[in-house]
Amino acid sequence: MTDPLITADTVPRIAPLFRFQWEEAQNCHVLLYPEGMVRLSGSAGEIMRRIDGKTPVAGLVADLSAAFPGADLEQDVYKFLEAAYGHGWLRSVAAG
Amino acid sequence: MVMAGSAPSLQGKPLWLLAELTYRCPLQCPYCSNPVEYTRYKDELDTDQWISVLRQARKLGAAQLGFSGGEPLVRQDLEILIAEARRLGYYTNLITSGVGMDEARVAAFKEAGLDHIQISFQASDEELNNYLGGTDSFAHKYEMARMVKKYDYPMVLNIVIHRQNIDQIEDIIRMTVDLDADYVELASTQYYGWSKLNAELLLPTREQLARAERIAHEYQDRMKGRMKILYVVPDYYETRPKACMNGWGAVFLTIAPDGAALPCHAARQLPGFDFPNVKDHAIDWIWHESPAFSRYRGFDWMQEPCRSCPDKTKDFGGCRCQAFMMTGDATNADPVCDKSSHHAQLVAEVDRMTAQPIEAVRARPLLFRNPKNSRALTPNEKA
Ligand code: SF4
Ligand code: SF4
User: Which atom of ligand 1 is nearest to the CA of B70?
Assistant: First the structure.
C-alpha cells in the first residue's frame, strides 16, 4: 500500500474492517478491529467522529475550527490523518 | 491477540470475552484444545443465559467478543446472539469450521451485524483435510470461504499446523492464495486437551519447522499488500514463554458451554480449582472477587525464578497450564523459559517426541476428538 497524498479534497472514510465508537467503560473513542482495540486520544476522537465518508478534509478542518475556536488545527488534522492512513484505519472515497 | 494501544491502567477489565457456545462439533480434530472430558459438561447455557452473559460482560467493559466452541454454528440461536451482541456494541468474531454454514446463514449473520468470520481448514488437500477433521468437509469449507467474501467479509483463514500437515505448507498457502484470502493464520498446535493426548503424533521436528518457516516468510514477502500471513511457531521450541492471556484474569474471560467462567479456555485442566459458574454468580463478582480469577493475578503467587525476574511484567511467567502439565505445579515458571529448572526436561521431551520417523508417526492412530473417545477417557463415565 502506498501512502496516499492527503489534500483538502480527499474524502476519508473508515476502513471496512474497523469500527469506530464511543466506549463508555474506557471513557474514550475507540477503534475496534478483529481481535484488537485502539484507544483514541480526545483530539483523535474529535477528528474521527467527523469522518463520515462524505466530508472532505477541508470540511473536517472547518468544522473542527468552528468547534474549537482559536486553535490552529490544520497541521494536527493532516498529521493525524496521515498516521491513520498509515495504520489502515482510513480509506479514501473515490472521487467522481 | 494484543490489544494495541491499550494502556496498563486498563488491566482489570475483561476486554475480551470468548463465548464457547457449545462443545458439540461435527468435526473430530485430534489437535482440538477442548477438554478431553468435554462430554461431561452437558448443560449448555440457553439463549437467555447467554444474553445475560453478553450484557453483564459488556457492562464491565468487554468490547471484543468471540463466538467459538466446539462449533458455534451448531447453536440455532447464533443469529439471535449475534444481533444482541451488535446491539450492545461488541465487535463480534465468529470462529468456525464452516461446517453447518450455508448462504442463508451467512446472509442472516450479516443482517444481524456480525463483524468478522474466521474459517479453519485442516489441510490443503481433500483427503488429508477430511482425515484430520474426521469428516468430509473440504469441499464445503471451500465453498463457504468464498461465500464469506461474497458477503463482503474479509476472508480470514486459520490452519492449525502440526507434524502431519506441515510439509504441505506451501500447498496450504497456495490454497489460501487461490481462495483470495485477506488474512491467513498458520497457527502451530497448542498442546492442551485433545492435542496434548496426541502431542507425540503432532509436534513437528526442528527441521520441519525451519523449512516451513522459510516458506512462510517467502510468501509473506511475495504477498505483501495483498494478503497478510501470520505464522505462529510452537512455543516448545522457544526459550522465552508467551505472555499467556496477557496475564491471568487481566483481559480475557472465557465462558465455557456449561457456564463455567475461565481465565483462559484451557484452564479447566488445572487441579484444585472451583471455577465459578455464571448460573450461580454475577460476572462482576466472578471477575473482581472470585478466588479462581484472583489466584494468579499480579505477581505475588510467583516462585523463583519468576519472582525476581525483570521479565515477569512482560510474560507473567508464561502459561499456567503448561507449567502445571510439565512440572506438576502451576505456580512454577513456564518450562518453555530457559531460566526454568524444568527447561532441560522439556527439551529432552521434545527430542523424544520428535525422534520417530514420520512414517512411524503416520502409522500410529490419532486419537480423534469425539463423544465416544471422550466418554471412554473420562473417569466415572462409560463409553
Ligand atoms: S478444533 Fe476441530 S474438533 Fe475441535 S472444536 Fe474446532 S473444529 Fe471442532
Ligand atoms: S523466569 Fe519467569 S518471568 Fe522470567 S522470563 Fe522466565 S518465565 Fe518469564
Answer: 5
